[in-house]
Amino acid sequence: MNIKTAALTGGFNDPVFQSQSVFRKLMDGMARPGSIHHVEDAMGQPEPLGAAAGAIALTLLDHETSVWLSVGLAKSPAANWIGFHTGAPITREKAEARFAFVEAGATIASFGLFSAGTQEYPDRSTTIIIEVAEFDAGETLTLSGPGIQRSTTISIAGLPEVFQRLWADNRALFPRGVDAVLTAGSRFLCLPRTTRIAASRAGE
Amino acid sequence: MTDLASYNFAYLDEQTKRMIRRAILKAIAIPGYQVPFASREMPMPYGWGTGGVQVTASIIGPDDILKVIDQGADDTTNAVSIRAFFEKVANVAVTTHTKEATIIQTRHRIPEQKLGEGQVLVYQVPIPEPLRFLEPRETETRKMHALEEYGLMHVKLYEDIARNGRISTTYAYPVKVAGRYVMDPSPTPKFDNPKMHMSDALQLFGAGREKRIYAVPPYTDVVSLDFEDHPFEIQKFEQPCALCGARGVYLDEVVLDDKGGRMFVCSDTDHCEERREEGHTGEMPSQEAAE
Ligand SMILES: [Zn+2]
After folding, report:
1. Edge to edge, what strands does the sheet with B120-124 contain?
2. Domains defined for chain A, CATH in brackets
3. pLDDT tens for residues A179-197?
4. Ion ligand 1, residue ranges at CB < 5 A
5. pLDDT in tens, B210-268
6. ipTM passes above 0.90
7. Which residues of B touch A194 (CB under 8 A)?
8. Residues of A with CB below 8 A from B201's CB?
9. In this structure, what DSSP letter does residue A193 have?
10. Residue B291 alpha carbon to ligand 1 centre in Å
C-alpha cells in the first residue's frame, strides 16, 4: 500500500515549463561536459531516486523509451513512480534500455551489456544516469574533449572505482558508446561519450 | 497536465518535444553525426525551415529571447514569419540584436558578432547529407560515414580544383567535425565556416524534410576540407561596406539603379546598423541606401 501511494505522488506541477527548464540544463550539460547544474523543484520522487535523477526521468522518458533500473531502484517504490509518471516500460534487458538509472553505491561491473548503438546508428545507445554521493568532494578528475575549452576539473565522491576504466573502454568505441549523467541529489553533470577523463594528481 | 494553452506551448505537443530533445542530446554527444528523428508537419512549407523551427520549438522557454535571420537580415519574409510564429505560439521575447538573443535561428549566415556561451545557434538545413551528391542512396552514405570512408569526397573536391584551379564551392562547403564526421554546414557561405570552429556557442542543425538533427558542441574542432597545395580560403571582399565601412565581413551586392550602379553592403544588417549607430560610415552613408 505504501508503495502504491508513493508511486502516485509527486511529478512536475507544471510539466510543460518544468520539463523545458530541466531539458535546457541537460542540453547545456551535454554541450559543456562537467558543468554542474541543479534542479530547483521537489519532484516527490521516492528514495533511492534522487531529485535530479527524478527530474531527468520526467523530462526524457515516455512510452517509447524502455528503462533499466539497478537492483536497489527496481525493488523500491521508485520503479512504480517512474512507470506511473512517465509511462516508460521497465526492462530487465540492459541492451534494450534507452535509459538506465543506477542508485548510489550500486556496483557497476561493465557498460558492455548496455547498448552502444551501431556503427551506422551510434545514437541508438543507452544513456546511463548514475547517482553519486556528492560533487566538490572526493577524487578530482580532469575532463577534456568537445564542449570543453582545453580542460576542466570536477570532484566526485562516491563514483564506483571501476568507472574510469569502464569510461576509457567506452571512449574507445567512438562513435559508438553510452552517454552518462552523474547525479548527486538535486545536482547533476553530463559526460557524453566524447569526454576523456584523467585522474588529476595536482593538489592531492 | 495543467491547461491546454501551455500544453501546446511552442506549437509541438510534449511527446514530440521529448522525442526531439532526446535526438538533440544524442546529436551533441556525437558531434557532426546526423540523428534521424520523426519530423512533424509544421504550419509552413518545407524549405521554410521546418527543421530549424522544430529544434527551436523543442528548446525554447519563456525566458528566451529569439532572433531569426535569413541571409544576414532580420526583415526578410522568412525571418519575419518565423519570428511572428514563435511570438504567437510561445509568447517569447524577440530581438534583432545578436548580443541580446539567447537563441538565434538562421537560414544561411552566422552573425558577424562573436557568439557567447549563453547563446544557441539553430540552423535551418535543406540538405543535411554532405555525401548526397556523390551517392543518392541513404544506406550507402550511412555506411560511408560509419566506415569514415571520405576518400570519394576528397577526390571530388580535387577534381573541382583540376577543373577550376580552385575549389569552386562557396556555399555548403564540407567540414570535418571533431576529427571524425564530415558534415554539411548547409547553405552557409564558406566565409562563415571559420566561425563554427571552437565557437563559444552551441550549434544545432535541423533538417525537416530529410528528418535529421545534428550538432556541433562549443569548443569543438570544425575544419574545412582542403589540400596541402590548395588550402581552404574564405572569400575576400576588395572594398569595405559602403554604409558602415566594415572590413572582413560578408558583403552583399546591391543594385542601385538601372545604369549599372551598385554597392557592397554588410549582409548582417544588425551588425551594419550597430556600427552606423556607433558613428562608423562608409563611402555611401546616405539614407536611401538603407531603405
Ligand atoms: Zn555595414
Report:
1. B35-36, B212-216, B202-207, B120-124, B103-106, B65-69, B93-94
2. 3-192 (3.40.50.11310)
3. 999 999 999 999 999 999 9
4. B 241, 243-244, 246, 266, 272
5. 999 999 999 999 999 999 888 999 989 999 999 999 999 999 999 888 888 899 999 99
6. yes
7. 29-31, 178, 217
8. none
9. T
10. 14
